[in-house]
Design brief:
The protein has 263 residues and is an alpha+beta fold. 45% of the residues lie in helices and 17% in strands. α2 (121-152) crosses α4 and α2 (121-152) runs parallel beside α6 (227-258).
């Protein structure tokens, strides 16, 4: 039973000595390029389990470590214990304290120490902030793009003017098929863009069963933790498809306007 006194939540940097960090454990696994750190928070002394971040989304592209493990890296370790600390609304874990860690690879494994160069603190803090907010940022971005894509395809109403029956009068059969090919391409790309935009914004609506074994819970956690990366990929596909559809519409209208008519 934990008998440590209650520590009131505070968002603050704490100075840590290497002697204290010596009690932390560095766990590596073949599933992750970077290790997981396990130890007690230097302020509240509760257990923390911190997977060292391997990638972060910038825009819609993941900035990730290469397959090989880097020789040295700095990360901000934030208390993520589950004990009560009178946390403010919206904060789910920890006492709010954080410290700067340095991981150094030696003989294929990492050793943990305190990063004394506080000039690394702004960059490490920026990474931590991005990781914390990336799910919300990606969903908000996807929702905006979904509305933009839907509005973009209001342009299809213009194609009725450009490709109606009278617009293609006088075109040869081959030229009509050429116009139709670009029309079909635009429609398929538009549908794909809207579907990908919807999935990026709201994900699949599904019922996940958790009543059989712990493996189901593990799969659920893995699915949830991959939300931001999944959203980024879908959003990229939606944007590419939208521009592809718009390009196909443009080519189709140019063909209608400039292809020679049969006398």
């Amino acid at each position: 039973m934990d008998t440590q006194p209650t520590t009131t939540y505070a968002d603050e940097f704490v100075h840590v000595e290497d002697a204290y960090i010596a009690s932390w454990h560095v766990h590596t696994s073949p599933e992750r390029r970077l290790p997981t750190l396990e130890g007690k928070c230097p302020k509240c002394h509760h257990n923390c389990d911190y997977p060292v971040p391997e990638e972060v989304l910038q825009g819609a592209t993941a900035s990730a470590a290469k397959n090989e493990r880097p020789p040295q890296l700095t990360r901000l370790v934030i208390c993520n214990c589950r004990n009560a600390h009178s946390r403010p609304a919206g904060v789910k874990l920890g006492c709010g304290r954080y410290w700067l860690a340095r991981l150094t690879k030696a003989g294929g494994t990492y050793t943990l120490s305190v990063q004394r160069d506080l000039g690394m603190l702004p960059a490490a803090s920026a990474l931590a902030d991005s990781l914390e907010s990336q799910d919300a940022r990606m969903q908000k971005t996807a929702e905006k793009w979904l509305g933009g894509i839907t509005a973009l395809f209001g342009l299809f109403s213009l194609t009725g003017v450009a490709t109606g029956k009278d617009a293609v009068l006088g075109l040869s059969q081959g030229h009509r098929w050429l116009v139709a090919t670009f029309m079909i391409t635009a429609v398929v790309a538009a549908v794909y863009a809207i579907v990908m935009g919807y999935l990026a914004a709201y994900d699949w609506v599904r019922l996940i069963r958790l009543d059989q074994n712990d493996e189901q819970l593990t799969r659920f956690e893995q699915y949830k933790s991959g939300y931001a990366a999944r959203t980024a990929g879908r959003l990229q596909h939606a944007v590419y498809a939208a521009f592809g559809a718009l390009s196909a519409i443009t080519v189709m209208m140019l063909l209608v306007w400039f292809l020679p008519r049969v006398a």
